[in-house]
Amino acid sequence: MYEFAYHRPGSVSEAVSLAGDHADGKLLAGGQTLLPTMKQRLAGPSDLIDLSRIDDLRGISVKDGVVTIKALTRHVTVATSPEVKAAIPALAALAGMIGDPAVRNKGTIGGSVANNDPAADYPSACLALGATITTNKRAIKADDFFQGMFETALEEGEIITSISFPVADKANYQKFRNPASRYALVGVFVAKVGAHVRVAVTGAGSRGVFRVADFEAALEASFTPAALDGLAVPASGLNSDIHADAEYRAHLITVMAKRAVAAAA
Amino acid sequence: MTAVSMTVNGQIVSADIDPRTLLVQFLREQLRLTGTHVGCDTSQCGCCVVHVNGDALKSCTTLALTCDGAQIVTIEGLATGDVLHPMQAAFRENHGLQCGFCTPGMIMTAVELVRRKGANLDEHTIREELEGNLCRCTGYHNIVKAIAAGAQAMGAAAE
Ligand SMILES: Cc1cc2nc3c(=O)[nH]c(=O)nc-3n(C[C@H](O)[C@H](O)[C@H](O)COP(=O)(O)OP(=O)(O)OC[C@H]3O[C@@H](n4cnc5c(N)ncnc54)[C@H](O)[C@@H]3O)c2cc1C
Ligand code: FES
Ligand code: FES
After folding, report:
1. How large is the ipTM?
2. Which residues of B touch A3 (CB under 8 A)?
3. Is the pTM of this model over 0.95?
4. Which residues of B touch A98 (CB under 8 A)?
5. Under CATH, domain A170-264 is a member of which superfamily?
């Protein structure tokens, strides 16, 4: 690791002012992405602003059909939360599929969403459920938030404080794991609210998580796996690597979407 | 250098450390508690798992400074004097190790698993929960058996 100065603010406002003072600093949440990156010297922040003592950033609430999860809430807490399991079981299940138990004991929803790894799980839930990402400055719709691989609408020093998920009538997430890393090779989150259906795909897109308009229209006409027969996302624009080429990923998207619809219906 | 203080296996320890110090480095290099191993140093293998405030964490992916004020338990802190913890005893009884390099992490993961999911663990659950712990020797069969037996023994001891 490169050298850095360490700060441990006790409040969001203190963290915001530290982030403002240190333009080359970084926020540290669970560290399950940032610390490995720093150890490999792929990141060398001048300052680390450790959010772990900001208790205000932890907690889950359900009100008026919206599940709000504060940024520092760990994956294990979401996975086992009775409130989340009752309101959006697919979201709790998704959190339980992230990494391994030790990673889930430390990694946070805010860190995962801020990082926008193209193979991360949470971005698909945000996009399919039409979540709102709230920061110290503003509220951002998921459709505007994810802007490409590791790119988000967050500005320098902006801190995610919570993420709000409207409760869906039906929802499901299907993840085809990379057999080695267990990240999503392809993950598809399907959500239905009234007559509206949203389908979000992670793991596959070269620009990160994306929605599939054709699938959504077909599922709005008929919310059945068969509605997706013959439909496929074009392989161009999908990731190709030693684990799976773009055509295989394209094939998997339809398969996983059908499974998600079957499980949700 | 920054001051840090935490409780490790029941003893309060304080030191001035470089902020880059990982929890595993603090444990092994400053406190000489070398039972916690570094297998991969890239967050994959789980040889470095310790308990921080009761949670099983990868100590190679945790800053020591983040643990300021925390309660840490390492593999050295499990036994009571000469009496092995039931999970340690179960690994010995069931031949749950060969070279033993992964064992501290396996045991720390298993003990927390029992706290989270109870003493009656089926094979599927144990295998799923070992997602973050790699073993290059055993083929896992005896590890799974050891954890099932250790979990039962922990349950019996708690009654
Ligand atoms: C072995 C392993 C397996 C994994 N498997 C999966 C998997 O299957 N699926 C998956 O989705 N993820 C996986 N992960 C990643 C894991 O989910 C991380 O916890 C997550 O990506 C980052 O969360 P964190 O809290 O650890 O953030 P950190 O690593 O602390 O931070 C990540 C980034 O987000 C920024 N950040 C953190 N919090 C905020 C905030 N509140 N506001 C603004 N910016 C913020 C940081 O500055 C940093 O740039 C895995 C990680 C490991 C080590
Ligand atoms: S040494 Fe920490 S996970 Fe391998
Ligand atoms: S016993 Fe040798 S690595 Fe597990």
Report:
1. 0.96
2. 18-20
3. yes
4. none
5. CO dehydrogenase flavoprotein, C-terminal domain (3.30.390.50)
